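ugh ok fine here u go
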Amino acid sequence: EKEAPEAAMMHLTPKERKKLRRLKRQERTQEIRDKIKMGILQPPPPKVKMANLMRVLGDEAIADPSTVERKVRQQVEQRRKEHEQRNEARRLPAEERKQKKKQKWMAETEPTTQVLVFKIKDLANKKHLFKIDMNAQQFHLTGCCIACPGVANMVVVEGGPRAIKRYKKLMIRRIKWTEEQADDDDDEEDQDEVTAPKLQDFCVLIWEGVVKQRSFKNWKVTHVRNEPEARKLLNDRQAEHYWDMLARYRDPRLDI
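structure:
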């Protein structure tokens, strides 16, 4: 007999997941209410707070308000402690929390992997290189940063949608690639000539796409001396086509 095909995994939207949680919570609450009506469970004691003290206890609160207030405060404190104990019991160990966070960034359950390829004009600034390296590690991205002075500098990152979105924002918006040059520029107020604005090509996204499987197993920053070394590094991981993209890239603004 032929084995029945496995059912495809259905992905719900955030609104649908919220509705499903609400319905399950209503079912659990209704089940508890039914058991209380049938006498299987004892009804919970009234949840007395300082705000509803007079409404719940009534005459008892009027007869001895100080004693009643002390009991209510003890009940409130007891409920708070029980709440914290339940939270602590559900809390994952440190190693499991770390692994859960890593899986969220890596998005291993996704059928495809997103890729970004950047061309960087200069990596002489150690601050920029540190941010590129540390953020890739923190987002659990795979890929490489190839620094080849005098030839080209390239960054290739692979990962899940959330991590790739954050890293793209880092490279395009957050890193101030011109922070060193801003200090060196002199005021040229005496010049009356109007010149065309320079192209901002310090960091350019040359390709963004989706691949079926990753080419890299981890993240690494590599310094090479020439183009053949860079090509060999990528060829070992079946990713030499990224360097071909870099070599063929031409800024579309030059054709305007």
